[in-house]
Structures are given as C-alpha cells and as structure tokens.
Amino acid sequence: MFLYRFRLKPLPLPLPFHKPLFVQITKMSTTSTAQANIRQWASKDGEFRRQVSSFRDSVSRDPNAQFAAEPNRYHLYISWACPWAHRTAIVRQLKGLDKIIGLSVVDFLMLDKGWKFSTSEETPGAIPDTVNNAQYIREVYFKANPNYDARFTVPVLWDKKLNTIVNNESSEIIRMFNEEFNDLIDNEEQKKLNYYPENLRGEIDEINEWIYDTVNNGVYKSGFATTQAAYERNVYPLFESLDRIEKILSTNEWLVGGVLTEADIRLWTTIVRFDPVYVGHFKCNLKTIEKDYPNILRWARQLYQIPGAASTVHMDHIKGHYYRSHTQINPTGVVPVSNGPDLSKPIIKS
Ligand SMILES: N[C@@H](CCC(=O)N[C@@H](CS)C(=O)NCC(=O)O)C(=O)O
Predict the structure, then answer these.
(1) Residue 198 annotated as binding site
(2) Site described as Lowers pKa of active site Cys, positions (predicted)?
(3) Which entry of 2, 13, 32, 171 is 20 to 30 Å from 183 by CA?
C-alpha cells in the first residue's frame, strides 16, 4: 500500500536533522524501514545495538532561547514500562514539574505499530495524547518530521508552541528538568534539588558511562541477544558491574558524593525491573537483587521511599510490557506473578 506524504530533504549537517531545507512530494510505502523492523531487536550477528536518539535540542532558562522554559509549554510522552522514560518521569515528579509539564502515558503493549495510546478505562495507568490526539507515538514523530525514519521511542519531550519534538534522549531530558525550569518552581526545596551538582560532575559522568553500557543497556544486550556468544559476551560484564556497585554501596549511602544524584536515578530504574523482569525474561540470572545484593536492595528501598518516587513505579505496566510485547522471547505471553522485592519495607542497613 502506498500513500503520498511530504518528504523533507534533511540538512547536510547531522544535528538538528529534523529542520527541513526544502519540501518535495514523494510516493512512499507505509512500511518504512523503522516500521518494518519494529519488533526485530538484534542485528544479523545476534547483538542488540541501541540507536542514537535523533532530536537533541534543549529547553533553556534563557527567556530568549528557541526553547525557553515556560509553564505548560512542554509535554512529556512516556511509558511506565520503559526504564529510560522512567528516569524522566521520576525527575519530573521529584522536582515538582508535574505542575507545569503535561504527561501522556502509552499503553504497555507495544506491538507491530509501536507504542499506542489507550484510555485509562482500557488500560489503567494509561494517559491518552490530548496534545496531538495521536493514536500511536509514531504520529508524534511524523508531526515533528514527516521524513523521520528511525525508531519511535519514548521518552519524547514535545513543544506545544513550536509544535515539534525538543528531545527524545532521556539522559538529556533529565538534565533539562534538573536545571532549566528552576525559575518556575515555587517550592523552595524542589527548586534547590540538584541531581547533577557541579563539584560531582566528573564522578557522575564516569560512573554513568560504565553503568549505562554494562547495566542499563547490558540487560537489553543480554536479553535481546540471539546467539549464545552475544548473550554471554554481555551477561558476565553485567554481573561484574553489579558486584562493583554492591561494593560501592556497602560503604556509601548513594553512588556518588554521599548524595542522591542522577547516577542513582539512572541505575535505579533498571534495578526496579531487575528481579521481576530481567532475571527471567532477559536471562540475567546469575544472581538476584533480593538474595545476593543486600546493599543494592537497601539503596533501592531508600530511593523508592523518597516521597513521589513510588508513584512512578507501575509494575503492571512493567511486567505486562516485557512479557507480552516481546513475543519472540515469550511467545505464550504468560506474565510471572512476582513483583520482585518489596521496596516499601523498612530499610535495613547492613
Ligand atoms: N536512548 C533512548 C532510548 C529510549 C528507548 O529505547 N525506549 C524504548 C522503550 S524502553 C522504546 O521506546 N523502544 C521502541 C522501539 O525501539 O521501537 C533514551 O534513553 O531516551
């Protein structure tokens, strides 16, 4: 099937690639590259490689900036299931930005057309798209760039004024939320919260790097591997890193500088999913958080029990997504019963 769509010729410069130079009309298949491969995770060699995010602009506290921080100008699209989107949801919540940045939450089921919007009656916890009235997240991407031909991922930060995507990279969205909206936050405590303090930036960047590669993405590289070699290449380094983190947390309350930073937040969304999903579904089963990592467990409870954090954990979406969307890994769609360790339990310091 074919349809006619405005096809934008991108600038020769890589960024920001969504700003068109001129417009031409072309005939194109409804099955674009991204669409055809939407549920194929591993490359031909059996390795999963995460794509680089495309929209990389930034909201700024400078009132004259293209994307100036303004109340109710920006809208965040997330999935409660996704660990990357979860980072943005928790920082939005802890900084009190829920009052000035709107939220849409996709259905946890991600099938051939990608992330879909549902009503809260259809799927409790889902929040439809009242900004663009999209049925699928792909429509939001095409509205920002009709020529978009990459994966339709969450999170997405949308600008209601310029009608475009500002950014779809979680690590950058959380930095914007951390700093750029501070002038609009009334609550003094929340305004002061700083998860990327200047004096700890070097240490945070360093720990983020190996945790991203071997843990946050390590679980995916293990779970989406389609060869034994690719799986083993990734699963051992994952547990080496968890052992290293356990050691750090045996003498430190938080990962860096004795305070809660973005390094903790970025790791935490993976740890919350570890026992209930990654141990079984992604075959990351050398150890579990509950039985083998008492300090990581204590730390996970510590963050969960910060007011506002627990409201961002939706285990029905998390388990429902992985076990029912990845049908090549779990063809029956049966969802295991355990939610992992109870993070609301009192903290035991070992
Ligand atoms: N680098 C991105 C990754 C986001 C990402 O991969 N999100 C996944 C959900 S966990 C997604 O939307 N995948 C849909 C797809 O790849 O088609 C970020 O950190 O924001």
Answers:
(1) no
(2) 278, 322
(3) 171
ipTM reported for the complex, 2 dp: 0.99
Asked if 308 and 190 touch (Cβ cutoff 8 Å), the reply is no
C-alpha radius of gyration, the chain, whole number: 20
- Single-letter amino acid code for the residue at 31: T
Residues with CB under 6 A from ligand 1: 38, 53, 82, 84, 114, 151-155, 169-171
> 145 and 261: one domain?
no
59 appears as a binding residue in the annotation? no
Cα of 170 vs centre of ligand 1, distance in Å, is 9
79 lies in a domain?
Answer: yes
Is 202 found in the same domain as 321?
A: yes
Q: Is residue 105 part of a domain?
A: yes
Kindly state the percentage of the chain with pLDDT values over 90. Answer: 83
Q: Determine phi and psi for 67, rounding to 5 degrees.
A: -110, 75
Ligand 1 atom nearest residue 79's Cα: 9
pLDDT the model gives residue 37: 67
Measure 348 CA to ligand 1 centroid, in angstroms.
34
Domain range spanning residue 277? 198-325
Residue 39 pLDDT exceeds 50: yes
Secondary structure (3-state) at 139: helix
Q: Which two tokens stand for residue 291?
A: 């039985």
What is the tally of structural domains in the chain? 3
